[in-house]
Amino acid sequence: ETGVTQTPRHLVMGMTNKKSLKCEQHLGHNAMYWYKQSAKKPLELMFVYNFKEQTENNSVPSRFSPECPNSSHLFLHLHTLQPEDSALYLCASSQDYGTGANVLTFGAGSRLTVL
Amino acid sequence: GQNIDQPTEMTATEGAIVQINCTYQTSGFNGLFWYQQHAGEAPTFLSYNVLDGLEEKGRFSSFLSRSKGYSYLLLKELQMKDSASYLCAVSESNYQLIWGAGTKLIIKP
Lengths: 115, 109
Prior knowledge:
heterodimer, A: mainly beta, 7-stranded mixed beta sheet, about 0% helix, globular, B: mainly beta, 6-stranded mixed beta sheet, 5-stranded antiparallel beta sheet
């Protein structure tokens, strides 16, 4: 399999549940990202990992917890979410981080609904 | 402050030409990106401009004017498969991307 793969594609959870989103890239990239995409809003950067180290955390609530065990895998652990957290969560990767022509390769996203 | 503006929605006819504009105000500039996103799919990279001028890539071209804080994506010979959202993003001085909300392009036969 090539590119960036996200699972699950769809997730419905209650506010007291704990779930995780998974992302895997087979591109040999060194940087991985979590973005939140809400309808008619710009993409919001949540977390960046470069060589497995977290380099950015854009004031994301602690109910979202990222994990990057190696350069190919990225997780987003979810607990006690709110209905306003319902959105499409996109994972992306890039060859490097902190360069100008930094092209992102995105996964198809995990559509999260919080009831 | 930081801001990227692009139209929310545009409609064009199959076979025609459409221009999607993007204006920006950011903290520094390290390049401007255009991505295409079909409904329910991943955004995919279309173009990157860092110098002023026009970059052509098949039916798609992207233009940049840094002094005006302005870019456009030009799509020629429109096809039905071009119906998608087009996202404009600017790389700031710290290389973080600032995104526009996207332009939904509807192609009619």
